[in-house]
Amino acid sequence: MFAMTKLRCEYKENPLGIDVIRPRISWQLVSDDRDCMQSAYQIQVAENMLFQGKLWDTEEVKSSQSIHVELEGLLLKARTRYYYRVRAWNQNAIDSGWSEVAFFETGLLDAGNWQAEWISAPTASFSQDSEICPQLRTFVDVKGPVESARIYATALGLYELQLNGSRVGDHYFTPGWTSYSKRLQYQTYDVTKLLHEGANALGALLGNGWYRGYLGWDNQKEIYGSKTSLLLELHIRYADGSNELISSDQNWQAAKSAIMMSEIYNGETYDARLELDITDPSSEGWHPVEIINYSKAIIVAQENVPVTQVETLKPIALLTTPQGDRVLDMGQNMVGWLKFNVKGQSGQAVELQHAEILDRDGNFYTENMRKAKQCIRYTLKGGEQETYEPHFTFQGFRYVKLSGFSADLQLEDLTGIVMHSNMERTGDFQCSDPLVNQLHHNILWGQKGNFLDVPTDCPQRDERLGWTGDAQMFVRTASYLMNTAPFFTKWLRDLKADQTPEGGIPFFIPELRAAPPGDGDTNHSSAAWGDAATICPWTIYEMYGDKRLLAEQYESMKQWISYIYAQGSNPYLWNTGFHFGDWLALDSKPDSYVGATDRDYVATAFYAYSVSLTLKAAIALEKSEDVDYYSELHAKIIKAFSNEFITPAGRLSVSTQTAQILALRFDLVKGVAKERAIQKLTELLAEAKDHLTTGFVGTPYLNPVLSEIGNNELAYKLLFQKDYPSWLYQVTKGATTIWEHWDGIKEDGSFWSADMNSFNHYAYGAIGEWLYRYVSGIGTDEWEPGFKIVHIKPQPGPGLDYAEASLETMYGKVESAWRRSEDNGMVIHVTIPANTNGIVVLPGANQLGLLENGVPVEQSRGVHSISLVDNGVRLEIGSGSYQFTYSL
What we know:
Elements lengths: L1 E8 L6 E3 L5 E8 L6 E9 L9 E2 L3 E2 L6 E2 L10 E10 L11 E5 L12 E2 L13 E9 L3 E11 L1 E6 L2 E2 L16 E7 L7 E10 L1 H4 L16 E10 L4 E5 L5 E4 L2 E5 L3 E5 L15 E2 L1 E2 L7 E3 L5 E7 L3 E4 L5 E17 L6 E7 L1 E2 L5 E2 L9 E5 L6 E3 L6 E9 L10 E8 L5 E5 L2 H17 E2 L1 E2 L12 H14 L3 H14 L33 H13 L2 H19 L33 H22 L3 H22 L11 H9 L5 H17 L11 H10 L3 H9 L6 H6 L34 H9 L2 E2 L9 E4 L9 E7 L4 E9 L3 E8 L4 E7 L7 E2 L2 E2 L6 E7 L2 E6 L2 E8 L1
Parallel strand pairs: 2-9, 15-24, 21-31, 39-43
Antiparallel strand pairs: 1-3, 3-7, 4-5, 4-6, 4-8, 8-9, 10-23, 11-16, 11-19, 12-15, 12-17, 13-14, 13-16, 17-18, 19-22, 20-21, 25-34, 26-27, 27-32, 27-33, 27-34, 28-31, 28-33, 29-30, 35-40, 36-37, 38-39, 40-41, 41-42, 42-48, 43-47, 44-45, 44-48, 46-47
Helix pairs in contact: 3-5, 3-14, 4-5, 5-6, 6-7, 7-8, 9-10, 9-11, 11-12, 11-14
C-alpha cells in the first residue's frame, strides 16, 4: 500500500480566506513497506472539483519534497475557491493515485480591495467612558437562491457576529491581538447556510478587548484606541450567477446590548432583561451608526489558527469553605469560562468569581490576581431556564465562588469551556512514573492556558502579556506538544512590526503602545528576552522546515544583532542597558527577583548564541556574504567572552549553576575551560544536594546540558526530586499546571508573595523538551529540518522502566519507545514516517546480539548502515516501524 493523506495548505486543512500570493501545499505519504521515499509528485489545481479546465498542473516533478511546495506561477483571484489534488511516485515508480480533493479559498488578497467603511456606535448614545458593549445591525434582502456567501470582517476591539439570531462561526476573541497600528487581522466566514430568501438580520456585538480595554498592571486603558468599530463585507453569489455586496456603512444601526461591561481582566456583567431582538425591525433603541476614519492598509488575513472552544470539563465537586463560601472545583487549572444554566425570577442576580487556588485553610484565594477581578455577573430575565456564557473575557481558574444561585444547584448545570488557539495536538509522552506523567500533563495544560492568540506569561492576573523571554524558552517544548507554526508565524510578524528602528525588541509582543519606544526608553531589549527574535524563527525552521518564515524574519534577526553590536564601547561584549538576568533564580539576593549570575555574563552569552543562530540562518538561506560576516563576528564574541569571563587557568569567573549551563549549552568554552565548567556544575549541584538554583534563563537548559555532557543520571536525579525546589514538588502539592515560582505554595501551605505568584506560568515547563528530546530521544536535524531526517537517541536513566513518545511531524508520525526487559535487556521501538530517513542511536547496545524483530540487525530490511559509537550502536534506517532488542 502506498497512498497520500493529510493534505494541507499553509498548515491548514481546507482554509478559508487566505491572502498568501504563493500558497504552499504539504502532504503525507503512508506505506506498509519500509524504506519508502517519494521520487516525484504532481499537483493539479482547478476551480471545480472535477478538475475540468485545470488552471495549473505541475505534471510529474522529480523531487522528494512533500512539504511547503509553492504553487509558484499560479495567478490567484480574490474571493475564489481553488481545488487541488496531489499524487506521488515512490522510489519504485509506484503511483499513489490521486489524493482526495482538497481546497483553499482566497480572501480579499489586497487591503486595497476593501469597499466597506468603519462603523461605530454614535458618540451621542455611547459616552467615551461607557462600559456598555454596543451592538450593530443591518437587514439584508436576499433576492433568490444563494450559491455561496462569505463574510469578511474585522474590528477595533473584539467582535461577535450574528446572522438571523445564530452566532456566526466558532472563532472567539476575533480579530485577535496584533500590533494594531501596524497590523490588523480579518476573518472569513462561510454563511451560505445561514441566509434565506427575503429579509435577513445581520448583526455584531463589539467588545473592548485588548484594543480599548484595561491592559498591564498600571490600570491602563485605551492603549490603542478609544472607539470600538466594525469593518464588514458580505459577498453573496446567487445561483443565477449574479453577485451582491453588503458592506458596513451609514445604513447600519447601533444600540446598547445587554453586556453592561466586558473586560479581559475583570470579567463580564450581563443583564438578560435588556436583550434586544436584532431580527425584529420594530425593536426600539436603535440609532444610526457613525463612520470613522481608520486605516485599511494595515489589514491582513487571519494568520494564526483561531481561538475556539477546544474542550469541556465538568466540575468534580461543589465545596463549602470554612468561611462559608460555595466554591466549585473544576479539578484542573484551566483557561476559558464557565457556562451555566440558571432559573429564577426576573432581576435575580448571580455572580461567579474565579481563582486558581484555595489557601491552606481551604478558603477561596484571589490575592495573586492583583487588580484582575475575574468576575461574571448575570441578571436573570426570569421564567424559563436560562443558559449563559461570556463573550469578550476569559478567566484562568480552577475554583469558582458562586453567589446568588439556588440551594439545589446541580453540578451538571455547570460546564467549564476550555479555550485556546486551536493548534493541532502533535506530541504525546508517557513513562513508568505517574508523577512524571502528571508533570507532562501540567506542561501541556500550561500551554493550553497561555497560548490564547499570543503566548502569554500567565492567563489570570492583570498581565497576560506576550513576554518574549517566556516564549523563546518554551518554543521548542511547545512545538513538540502542538503544531505552533501558524501561531508563531503571526506572533513573529508582530515582533518584527514592533521592533524599534534601531533593532531593539520590546519585553512583550504586542507592545503596549501605538508607537515604538523612543530614545532613552529602557522598556525593551533585555538579553534572553529580545533573543526571541532569533531563537523562535530558527526553532520553527528546525521543527517545521519553514524556510519562508525564516527568510521573512531574517532581517529582524540581523537588526537584533546590529542593535546589540551598537551597545557600549566594546561591540563584542554586551555590558550595558537593563537586563532581567536569571529571573527568579533561587540564588538571588534577599528581596530581589534577579539571580546571582552576572547580568553582563548572561547578556554576552545570549549575544553569542543569537549570532550563532543568525549564522545558521544565513547558511540555510544561502547568504554567503552574511555567512562570512557572522562567522567572524561570532569568533570575536567568543574571544571577548573568554577574555572577560574565563580566568587564565580556565575557570569561569561567574560561579553559578546558570553560568556553567549557558557556557556549555552555547558552546562558549573549549578544552580545559569546558572540563572545568562541567566539573563546577556538578559541584554546585552537589552543594545544593542535587537541586537546582536556576531561574528563567538557566532552567530550560539544565537537564539538556547534563544529558549532553554525559551526566544523564544526574539529570534524572533532578527530575525525580520531590522536595523544594523541583518540578515534582509542584506535582506533590497538587499542581495541574506549571507554577511561576518553585515554591508558589510553601511546605507549610502558605504562599509566595501575592504580587507575582501565578499558578499557570509555562516557562519552567521547558523541561518538556528534555522529556521528548532526551528521555525518549526524538530530535531534529538542523540541516534537514522539519524531520526530513529523524534523530532517535533515547537516553534511559535510573527511575524509569519505560518511556514512550510520539510526534506528528509534517511528514507523519514519529515514535520512540524504550523499556527494560526482565533479562537485563532493552527493547526499543521506532517509527520513521514515509519519505524520511532516521538516524538511531541505541544506548548501551553492541552490534553482537542486536536483533530487529528477532532478526540480526545487519539482515534487517531498511537498515542502511551500522556503526559503533560511544556507549551504543548507530543505525541509519529508512521509513517504517522497527523493534530492536539487545542485552545491556
